[in-house]
Amino acid sequence: MRKVFQGVYPLSFDGADIVCISRPPLLEKIPPGERFSSEKLVDDLIRQGKDAHFFGDTQSVIDFLVKESGAGDLVLIMSNGGFENIHERLLKAL
């Protein structure tokens, strides 16, 4: 949730075709000047030529992935927490 890796984080997505970024929960617990910015990450990825998208909530990510993914696609979910049970919710939606 902190912006410690904000500058280098965009490099972590070099192998991705499409990147979906959601706002971390509980950002209000972090002082404003130290907060990670999902929106900035998406902007940086777009500037690098990536097909990157920002989502304000988990359900929006699921809806997008259901619409955009197809048979044989690999969907990787990266999170430092439970991500509102996105794994099971996405599997059910697919």
Note the main attributes of this structure.
single chain; 94 residues; alpha+beta; Protein-Tyrosine Phosphatase, Chain A; two-stranded parallel ribbon; 3 helices; 2 strands; 31% helix
Radius of gyration: 14 Å
- The helix/strand class is alpha+beta
Low-confidence stretches: none
Q: What's the total count of β strands? A: 2
Assigned CATH class: Alpha Beta
Helix segment count? 3
Mean residue pLDDT? 93
What is the first-to-last residue Cα distance?
Answer: 29 Å
Task: Provide the domain count.
Answer: 1
The CATH topology is given as Protein-Tyrosine Phosphatase, Chain A
Helix content: 25-40%
Strand order in space, largest sheet:
1-2
Largest sheet: 2 strands, parallel
CATH superfamily (homologous) name: Mur ligase, C-terminal domain
User: Which strand-content bin applies to the residues?
Assistant: 5-15%
Shape: globular
Brief synopsis:
This protein is α+β, with helices and mostly antiparallel strands and 94 residues long.
Protein architecture, described:
The protein has 94 residues and is α+β, with helices and mostly antiparallel strands. The chain has one domain (3-93): Mur ligase, C-terminal domain (Protein-Tyrosine Phosphatase, Chain A). The protein has 3 helices and 2 strands; from the N terminus they run E-H-E-H-H. It has helices at 38-47, 58-68, 86-93; strands spanning 18-22, 51-55. It has a two-stranded parallel sheet with strand order 1-2. Strand 1 (18-22), helix 1 (38-47) and strand 2 (51-55) form a beta-alpha-beta unit. The longest helix has 11 residues, at 58-68.
